[in-house]
What we know:
CATH architecture of the largest domain: Up-down Bundle
Distance between the termini: 28 Å
CATH class of the largest domain: Mainly Alpha
Strand order of the largest sheet: 1-4-5-8
Number of domains: 3
Strand content: 15-25%
Number of helices: 11
Largest sheet: 4 strands, mixed
Low-confidence stretches: none
Amino acid sequence: MHDTIYTTPEHETLRAQIARFIEREVEPVGEQWEEDGYTPRDVLRKMGSLGWLGMRYSPEYGGAGADIVTSVVFQEALSLSTFGGFIVTVLVHTDMASPHLVNAGSPAQLEKYLPRIIAGDLVTAVAISEPDAGSDVAGIRTRARRDGDHWVIDGTKMFITNGVHGDLVFVAAKTDPGAKGSRGISIFLVEKGTPGFRVGRALKKQGWNSSDTAELVFEGCRVPAENMLGEENGGFYAVMKNFQIERIALSAMAVGHARTALRLTGDWVKQRKAFGSVLFDKQVIRQRLAMLDAKTQSARAFLYHCAWLVSQQRDCVREVSMLKALTGELVNEVMYTCQQFHGGMGYMRESPIERLVRDARVLNIGGGATEVMLEEVAKRLQFD
């Protein structure tokens, strides 16, 4: 996307830097991370030293002070890696967890945590989902009750990315059990090692294997009152606010995955011979890839348009929900075809396309399933 209305020469430089980083620091060793079940923290510290973990945060704390379009350039460039678990480890830290601190943190909380978050010394997670509540945030059952100058948290969180090896978790809990629906939820800062807070188990997944995912258990977990983030009972609105950023990040991930899969498949079909010629000589192969490329480039343009809408502080729940639904489905359509065109090799664990197929599958589930997103769109339908 050279010289578009949304991006600049500086953005192209950033893309090139990230591409070099992935080539040197990620792709040669990512298979080991898949086996280990997490991305090593020294990789995040390297990214922190390059200034990539605080794109939109204030330079006062070590951030870059950039806008969300720059953030999307970063997200998409990172998502050209073939290791989705690595990508989501970073993006949860930068765009799904730590924004809660930046949006609602007190000066003391920001001073205490943000410089280390931006440096990659403190890895963050966000604990909203539960066994019976995901996109339905109003259904969370984790409770926090006031006890003197502390809050005591009890409950279980599920599917928490960075939950096993994370250092700081943003936990949503019900602080007013009498409140109806989405009211009465607050967010707390809970540090690893806090008594009463433990990792219930590390979860095994279909994909994203180089990302650590946990069930988190809170049993009489006492946190100081000053660890409440933002207003008491105002957590639902904080969660809803950041869903927009989270969904754009996951959409950027989907676009990056689709672009990488198409590139790998284009290279493959141009050298793989069958029935006397390379696969690219078959019209059905060429045209199918051409159409998928057209769809991917269209989705990519819409991604940057949504980022621009957010940067202009426009109300764009409809557009972002459309984007998340569109890209989550499209990336899986792309993966199905790309794996098919790889033939038997596409089914082998040593093939990057096989890993991408598994990693992409969750992108129309996590961060708001396609069906949830389409309901958000349907509420706001304007056939204009």
